[in-house]
Amino acid sequence: MIDPDGAPLLSLGDATAPMYPRSSLKPAQAAGMLRCGLELPSADLALATASHSGEDDHVRRVGELLARYSLTEDDLRCPPDLPLGAEARRGVSVERRIAMNCSGKHAAMLATCVINGWSTADYLDPKHPLQVAIAETVVDLAGEPLANTAVDGCGAPLFAISLTGLARVFQRLVGTPVGDAMHEHPWLVAGTGREDTRLMGAVPGLISKIGAEGVFAFALPDGRAAAIKIADGADRPRLPIAVGLLSRLGVEGSGIGDLDDLAEIPVLGGGEPVGSVRLIPGALD
User: Fold this and answer.
1) Which secondary-structure segment (H or E) carries 159?
2) 229-247 pLDDT, tens digit each
3) In the chain, how many H helices and how many E strands?
């Protein structure tokens, strides 16, 4: 966790070790596309940062974004998938690329290629001009060099940085078009009942983004920011830890749901609550 000047406020574990931010890096990737000249309405820009649930409005908006640049679902190179959301998945048996949670990012990547006259068939190649520009943006925002480049679950290049670097990324997105789009459209960043939707709805001006394998990052309007990585890759502790960090920073929730409602995650057994995941008092001291 860092203060508005980038100085450390709290560090547990090795915050300087390289890690893969997974989808928590999507806002930085979107910033890289804007630096390449992409111009999107705020809602579409939020969708470019999203790990959306594949609900009807998510899929419709991705399709409209593609069509605006004379692209189709067939141009997407993310893998076909079912929607993430349980309700959106109900009755759906055919996997589609446009329903995959990263399709908004991929549609925006393709649009960036179109406006620059770059090839679209190989837009995921790390040597493609788009990915080179995005990598440069990540380095700039994180304030450190990339430790490694791998392949994310959606097929896009995945850049390894430290947790401190990821916190800097979010800090530097505050007050930018990307940050503004995220807190204006939290549902488009995630979906109904999802972590980012709930957290950004509870804390005005907050920007946050989950990532696979227990990654989570957020920044407050005043520039304080944090990034976490659950060592075993589990997702359930993310929200209680994020709420604990916000509480330590003196942040109180308002708007959609109180932070206290997000601080404890139920564990189900036989469809009924049998326990919960919550932060142990003093764990962040």
Assistant:
1) strand 157-162
2) 999 999 999 999 999 999 8
3) 11, 8
Report the C-alpha gap between 19 and 230 in whole angstroms: 11
Closest C-alpha to 47, from 181, 144, 196, 163 = 181
Tell me the per-residue pLDDT of 57-85, one tens digit each, with 9 for 90 and over: 999 999 999 999 999 999 999 999 999 97
Give the separation between CA 188 and CA 186, rounded to whole angstroms.
5
* pTM of full prediction above 0.85: yes
Residues 6+ apart with CB under 8 A from 249: 1, 9, 220, 224
DSSP 163-216: HHHHHHHHHHHTTSHHHHHHHH-HHHHS-TT-HHHHHHHHSTT-EEEEETTTEE
How far apart (Å, rounded) are the C-alpha atoms in residues 130 and 125? 9
Overall residue count recorded for the chain in this entry: 285
Tell whether the torsion through CA atoms of 110, 112, 114 and 120 is positive or negative. Answer: negative
Q: Which residues contact 86 (CB under 8 A, 6 or more apart)?
A: none
Q: Is 81 helix (H, G, I), strand (E, B) or coil?
A: strand
